[in-house]
Queue: 3 jobs
Job 1
Amino acid sequence: MDRHVWTDEETEVFVGFMEELVIEGRIADAGQFRPESFEKLAAKMNERFPSGGFQITHCKNKVKRLKEKYQFAADIAGCSGFGWNDVKQCVVVDNKEILAAYMKKQGVRLYTPGKPFPLYTRLEKIFCKERANGDAAVCGNDAEEEVQMNGYEEMDEEDTDFFNSNHDCSESLLQ
């Protein structure tokens, strides 16, 4: 299998084609591109760059690399002491010690904070749907309020006694 070294222009156009596929609904339930999507991406890239020789494997690998880089940057941006700067289009960090500790712990570097990543917001629209971000998370009290507001029955006394007891569930879970 031959490798393809992507130019910035090719990558920019490729992300545009990925965005089109998302709009067309060519994403499976799990948030992954459907297999036929890669054929379409390769065809569109070859149409736009006739001398590129894009193959399906090139497109699969590019999607994988873009997704890895996006997820790595998103994970960093979500950590305490880090954030996303829309103006500079990069992940920023509060101080060098936090960055050094994070990079030492992480080991792998798919993105370096402070380095511009102009495709980040576009990739977020493509890949963010498949990431758990905690937006739907609720604490126990909020969940109880929501259940009561939606008209569901409250727990009866027997259920409440079970949850208020020091009942050990570990034995039943093992079975």
Job 2
Amino acid sequence: MSSVHSVCCVAAGIAGNLFAFVLFVSPIPTFRRIIRNGSTEQFSGLPYIYALLNCLICLWYGMPLVSPGIILVATVNSVGAIFQLIYIGIFITFAEKAKKMKMSGLLTAVFGIYAIIVFASMKLFDPHARQLFVGYLSVASLISMFASPLFIINLVIRTRSVEYMPFYLSLSTFLMSLSFFTYGMLKHDPFIYVPNGIGTILGVVQLVLYAYYSRTSREDLGLRESFIESYA
């Protein structure tokens, strides 16, 4: 029974890593455009700064020194941190001087905050308290990242269009959250399953909205075509 449980844990964790990878590579077209045009244009680098901080905090939570037995949380966030660093590096390279200085300062601040968290958790807390301290920080960080899907959900409802909510990105977000929710439940770790449970619910909402508004858009298009043909 324990071997089956272990296999299920590993399977859920690996699935979460794979679906997260899809999310990590999703900004590549944006950065191809930045490199091609030699400018960051109107793009903001802040989402990548926030994502890097989130990955670093969750990476530290998944390390054996903090939470033994959940190394797959550390692996996914280490990969995520590398991707965010690459994106930020490209952004800084092609940004105008004011943005370059701002992003460099924010990047330094992120590493400073991470260093303080690591130092404080190692020096001020025993192992159990350390896991609680970093766990609460990781949950707060993950929940703050939900601002993006909430903004997209609001945008879809206001515009009645799924133009800015790609289906495969929404599906990957849902599957990643569901995988890590399952992983957290199997590991009996609320710091994993609570935020990913919220992410799973938001993913379901996005997919339902996509199904509804994409169908509505097709019906509207069909009506317009029928109207045009009747007067042709």
Job 3
Amino acid sequence: MKVQKEKRFALLMAARDSDYVKKMYGGYFNVFVEALGDQGEKWDLFRVVDGQFPDRDDLQNYEGFVISGSPHDAYGDEYWILELCFLLQTLFAMQKKVLGICFGHQVLCRALGGKVGKAYSGWDIGIRKVRFTENFSFYGFLDGSFDEIPPTLSIIECHQDEVCEVPVGAQVLACSDKTGVEMFIFGDNILGIQGHPEYTKDILDNLIDRLLSNNSIEKGFAEEAKLKLMKTEADRKYWEKICKSFLKGRWITLSL
């Protein structure tokens, strides 16, 4: 009898845990695994923001990688960001599945030849409705449930940077009234999502408080964002399905 090999995934953590997330969830790692993990998988944490990277010889043993959000700029030149870019180029060459979230979406774009920068329209904080482009229709799920995905989905957002131009050969899969590149795919193994599929509303609510306390946003803006947050829900289950289907080989290209 053949024993099925345990599938391994790696979270490349580009932010440090907030006190709130540590208290309520035990850290962002648990938030990601709860959203994207399945029974029988092994998830490893690498705090790349602190210079912790996977061993090069071990990369081949992972099914996929997830890059988290971060308060840092994806276009910055800190040593760990440059090292992360090199790692992402390596994973792309190896054709490993890589999912980038928020900062991860942006740094993936940068590493593979696209352009990122400050958003012309400023901060986007709250629950944003994004529209899938025509390119999205060229993909599907192995279980045939792709048609169940609505043409628009709401997602939690918290960013002031954005993808300005995707790498040559990449396809924009979603956009919004605020951001031109909400989601992109490059080949069969790279997917970037500007929003936060893993966030809960309480995580964002606490993050708004922290941004206000460190003077990153104005009080009026924070109050309005919190009020809107109370009235809207994100389509988390759909986003989780999209992310998990991509990471775990259940996402297929129909035609291009």
